[in-house]
Amino acid sequence: MTSPRALVVDDEPDLRELLDITLSRMGLEVETAADLSSARRMLSANGGYALCLTDMRLPDGNGLSLIREINRDHPELPVAMITAYGKVEDAVTALKYGAFDFVSKPVDLEVLRSLVRTALQMHKDDLEKAARSMDANEAPATPAHKPAPERPVSEGESALLKQRLIGDSSAIQRVRKTISKLARSQAPVMISGDSGTGKELAARLIHDLGPRSDKAFVAVNCGAIPSELMESEFFGHMRGSFTGAEADKEGLFQAAHGGTLFLDEVADLPLNMQVKLLRVIQEKTVRPIGGREELRVDVRILSASHKPLKSLVEAGNFRNDLYYRLNVIELHMPSLNERPEDVGVLARHFLDSIAEQWGEPPRTLSDDAIEALARHPFSGNVRELINILQRAVTLAEGTTITGNDLSMEHSLQPVDAAPACPEDRSLDDYIEDVERQILENALKEARYNKSEAARNLGITFRSLRYKLKKYEID
């Protein structure tokens, strides 16, 4: 069995030699090029590389051009950028052009080895998927088909995407296609969308379909961590580093080492924590509280927010440099109102799931129930749809759920639908009563699951906890 081949493109002889030795010791056959034109000739004449490393600045051009050409002509070839130390802008640009990752000068060999292992796994996965796709297309009855100029999506990958992201609307089809592409990259992804649109689900799919799928996927709601515990939660601490630290504690970055860290509601991070997070992303090291040494971490960052981060940046509430470091590629999750044609199939799917989980007989939806769901303005998206169906299963007397069983008038209403303030009451008292009622309704809808109630309301868990204490709601 032949060894995988790597192409190294750099005009510094010493760095080419270092990369050659390191990759050769990892079992790769290494070929090197000192400029852009040589690299192009080698790609055209030889091909079949499993990895390409290219410098940003070359004597006869820019490495970004090579990245763009490789993604166009050799989509199965993982390419990584070598950037100057501290040039975060160059790294971000390379990722946007299609590089799957980057490594900074001076090259940290452990970071390089981790990058190479990920690239080889990506290349191996792509070859296997291409082979399976070719076998399927070589059946005698299948007409000749010109392959698309991009990595083929395997049957298993396609089935997983359709199983988890249900629907046939053009909006959800675009999401599935984008996720398939993002899974192959190591670039940070910002997942945007309203509460309840499935942002964490999308993050899990990106992880599960990528080369890190055999490592940990760690999800954290940034708004649910008390500010005084954030540094310990993210970076860990050493025994005795503060009062109550009775043992060493692994942080979220260490727990996700080799895998994926999903930062949900990243907009809720306080500014002092944003500075520390940016440093970890750039340096790829963490120092636990009370620790003396920096620990190397290899983590892909995926983040999400239902708040528009750009406006928070403009208002000075979110760091501009962190925003651009996290938002290398954006994935928008459409609201249910943006894909109304999916409501029926989603409702049937969730009804089957509810029946299985609750040990209930299977339920069906009447025509008027489907029409009512299609007309309903889902402010809580898929999560609201599930809550409506759970309530309907509880209240319906037969196996067919009608429009009346849905009781959608009890769903969370927007604040502007509240009745006018009576003249004999102060505005503050009235607003407090309205807020208290909204909180109580949200808790009932979520079956008193506080985390779910907070998500449905579009607020942080910490904010919900404060409001419940304020209004003495148990």
Q: Can you describe this structure?
A:
The protein has 474 residues and is an alpha/beta fold. It has four domains: 5-125, Rossmann fold (3-Layer(aba) Sandwich), CATH 3.40.50.2300; 155-334, 3-Layer(aba) Sandwich (Rossmann fold), CATH 3.40.50.300; 337-410, Helicase, Ruva Protein, domain 3 (Orthogonal Bundle), CATH 1.10.8; 415-470, Homeodomain-like (Arc Repressor Mutant, subunit A, Orthogonal Bundle), CATH 1.10.10. The protein is built from 20 helices and 16 strands. A five-stranded parallel sheet has the order 2-1-3-6-7, sandwiched between helices. Helix 7 crosses helix 8 (199-208) and helix 14 packs across helix 16. Residues 139-149 and 412-427 have low confidence and may be disordered.
Count of structural domains: 4
- The fraction of residues assigned to DSSP E strands is 5-15%
Low-confidence stretches: 139-149, 412-427
The CA-CA distance between the termini, in Å, is: 66 Å
The major beta sheet can be summarized as: 5 strands, parallel
CATH architecture of the largest domain: 3-Layer(aba) Sandwich
Present the secondary structure layout.
Elements: E1 5-9, H1 13-25, E2 29-33, H2 36-45, E3 51-55, E4 57-58, E5 61-62, H3 63-73, E6 79-83, H4 88-97, E7 101-104, H5 109-137, H6 155-164, H7 170-184, E8 189-192, H8 199-208, E9 217-221, H9 230-235, H10 252-255, E10 260-264, H11 271-283, E11 285-286, E12 295-296, E13 300-305, H12 309-314, H13 320-326, E14 329-332, H14 343-358, E15 364-365, H15 367-375, H16 381-395, E16 400-401, H17 403-406, H18 427-445, H19 450-457, H20 461-470
Parallel strand pairs: 1-2, 1-3, 3-6, 6-7, 8-13, 8-14, 9-10, 10-13, 15-16
Antiparallel strand pairs: 4-5, 11-12
